[in-house]
Every structure is written in C-alpha cells, then in structure tokens.
C-alpha cells in the first residue's frame, strides 16, 4: 500500500522513506499528506515525523502557485508600453484599466441572522437561496483613483462596446488610453472598427497570460471580498447586491496620489518569466 522504502526502525533509511512518502501522492484520495497520516503509515509518533519533515525542509501543507512564461512574441513590447503608461502617461491623457467580472452570484441566507448573546455567538443558517447572477464592467482611472462601474446581465462584446462609448462620452476632452486583457469580447470586429475611428481612444492589450498587468484586477479582488463578507453576514440580498453592482456614479479613492519614476522593464521583469 505504501512505498517499500518505508522501513520502521531502519535508521536513516526510514527517515528518507518518510520524506519520500511525504512527497508522494496519498493513495487514499487525499490531496496531501498530514503529520497524522504519515505517522500512521510509518509507525512513528507525530512529533518524530514532524522533526523529520522539519529537518528535511518538507512542508506538505503548503502550495506555491507559479505563472508560466508567456508565449506572446510581443511580450516585452506590450509590457514595456503598459508599465510606461503607469509611470508616465502622456500630457492630457487619462489612463483607464477596464475589465469585467462575470457570473457573480447573489446569495442570501434563507433565515435571518441570529445575533450573538452571552455565551452564544451569532448564528447563520447553512442554507441559502440564489438571487440570480450578473456581471460587472469596471474602469479604473489609475492616476485619479476613480472607478466607474456598470452592471450588465452578460459580459459580451456588445456590452463592452457600450461601456467604451460611455467612457468616451464621460471624458470628452481627454486622450484615453485603455488597458484591457486578451478576452475575445475585447477584440470583436465591431469594437475594433469603432475604436479605429476614435482619434482620442487607444486600446492597449496585455500580453497573453499576463492579465496581472491590468491594475483593475485589484478592484476585482476587493469586490469579491465585499460580496463574500456580505454573504457571510446574511446581508447579500438581491436588492443589496443590485445596488452594489449598478453603480451609475463614480466611486473614488481617498487621496489618490500620482507616482512617477523610471524602471527598465525588460531586465527586471522578463527574468522572472
């Protein structure tokens, strides 16, 4: 059932076997080994197993994600242009980061939250009801700290084009540089033709597998955290969620400040990809 290298009370070979087992895939369908499971498999105590893992710098409970190298042949040029816009935008230009968050679920608890009382914490029902799904289009004015949002039923190319037109009207006297990722809805023919006829508007696409260059992704994380906290507290009702998503006004940061500087993009960033 377990690798033959596991030999209880066999000195250094057993320690090597514990490490080898910890680095293997559990046969019982678990995603990872725990100290308790390793102790049961090897016959050693949990403290002994922990010491062996510590000595071998083995941490089965940790997972580190990595990003593979982008296959985009124009990666260097695209990331240099985007970072350059972040650090020093052209005069009278407005830098906007645009993205959509799709399939957002509005969940509500089936029963009201029971408030806490002495010796009894607040209680939530484990069941919930769905209030539908929707999508959010958002644009971040990077150097001004302003976010413009629009709730839509579906994040398609038509809604993206409508959102671009809204931004174009919202800033009538500014040169607009818009950063978007490589989603197919951003590259549809109708959107390309409309953008090509607008002298004040320029689209900048992030390299393939490099949407992390788009600053609006940070807002997506914040939005997800807000909705999650509301669901956990039992306040994410349909009307509440609609008010949050359907932001026809602009949400502004407190005291955003401009940043400037010069960083040679290719040497310091490309070596990590």
Descriptive report:
This protein has 273 residues and is α/β, with parallel strands linked by helices. It has two domains: 1-64; 75-256, Ribonuclease H-like superfamily/Ribonuclease H (Nucleotidyltransferase, domain 5). It has nine helices and six strands. It has helices at residues 12-22, 35-42, 46-55, 75-87, 157-170, 189-196, 216-233, 238-245, 265-270; strands at residues 93-109, 128-141, 146-152, 175-180, 201-205, 250-252. Strands 5-4-1-2-3-6 form a six-stranded mixed β-sheet, sandwiched between helices. The two termini are 40 Å apart.
List strands and helices in order, with pairings.
Elements: H1 12-22, H2 35-42, H3 46-55, H4 75-87, E1 93-109, E2 128-141, E3 146-152, H5 157-170, E4 175-180, H6 189-196, E5 201-205, H7 216-233, H8 238-245, E6 250-252, H9 265-270
Parallel strand pairs: 1-4, 4-5
Antiparallel strand pairs: 1-2, 2-3, 3-6
Helix pairs in contact: 2-3
């Amino acid at each position: 059932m377990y690798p033959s290298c596991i030999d209880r009370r066999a000195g250094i070979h057993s320690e090597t076997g514990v490490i080898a087992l910890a680095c293997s895939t559990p046969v019982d369908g678990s995603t990872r080994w725990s100290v308790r499971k390793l102790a049961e498999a090897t016959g050693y105590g949990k403290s002994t197993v922990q010491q062996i893992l510590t000595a071998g710098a083995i941490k089965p409970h940790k997972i580190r994600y990595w990003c593979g190298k982008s296959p985009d042949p124009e990666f260097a040029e695209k990331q240099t242009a985007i970072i350059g816009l972040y650090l020093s935008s052209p005069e009278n230009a407005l830098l906007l980061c645009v993205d959509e968050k799709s399939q957002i679920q509005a969940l509500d608890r089936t029963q009201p939250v029971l408030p806490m009382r002495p010796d009894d914490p607040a209680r939530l029902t484990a069941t919930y009801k769905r209030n539908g799904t929707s999508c959010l289009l958002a644009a971040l004015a990077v150097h001004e700290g302003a976010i413009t949002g629009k709730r839509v039923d579906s994040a398609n190319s038509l809604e993206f084009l409508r959102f671009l037109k809204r931004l174009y009207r919202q800033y009538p006297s500014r040169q607009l540089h818009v950063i978007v990722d490589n989603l197919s809805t951003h590259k549809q023919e109708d959107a390309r033709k409309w953008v090509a006829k607008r002298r004040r508007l320029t689209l900048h696409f992030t390299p393939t597998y490099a949407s992390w260059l788009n600053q609006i992704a940070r807002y997506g994380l914040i939005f997800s955290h807000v909705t999650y906290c509301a669901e956990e507290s039992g306040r994410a009702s349909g009307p509440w969620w609609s008010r949050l998503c359907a932001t026809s006004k602009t949400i502004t940061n407190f005291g955003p400040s401009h940043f400037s500087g010069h960083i040679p993009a290719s040497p310091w960033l490309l070596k990590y990809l």
